[in-house]
Sequence to fold (194 residues):
Amino acid sequence: MKSRVLARRYAEAFFQVIKSGQLENSIEDFRAFSAAVAHPSVFGDFLKRPAVNLELKVSLVRKSLENASSPFIADFIHTLLRKHRFDLLSIISDEVERLYRKAKSIVRVQVKSAVSLKEDEIELLRERLNKMVNGNVEIFETLDPSIMGGLVIWMEDKLLDGSVKTRLELLRDKMRHLKSKLFDDLEASPSQLF
Fold:
């Protein structure tokens, strides 16, 4: 928990600096660097080793980021290395992504379907969801044949379940309830049958 709070502070400070410049390019460069050092990675493992000289690490980071759109990225990684916080980079990356999506009004939406959606279906879904959230929707599709059909959509803190499986379960529950109620009514007044 403490590392998440610390990572959030670093991410917020870093994001404040890069958003004043070329945000899109800086985010892309930061994503690329974070992916390059993600575990397992020879470069990432090398940067995490405490026995390796700090100046050598910084030199390699600066060399790898020499074509980056912002010098602040290399400066930020240097700060993480110097403060022995490089191990937080993956959490910081997640937090920077969250801040970026918030600043750009991008909502991540997970869509589960039984079969792969066609491109025009995804676009129609994106248009409708954009209107619901007053922002830009980023759709990630997963396949799950067990839902039998329809869609299950997770966005922000909402779950929209329009799957055939769930609808059948609801119908089954209603039928059980009706059957139980019918028998209760019969037991309460059997004379009304005749």
Summary: Residues 7 and 88 are 6 Å apart (CA to CA).
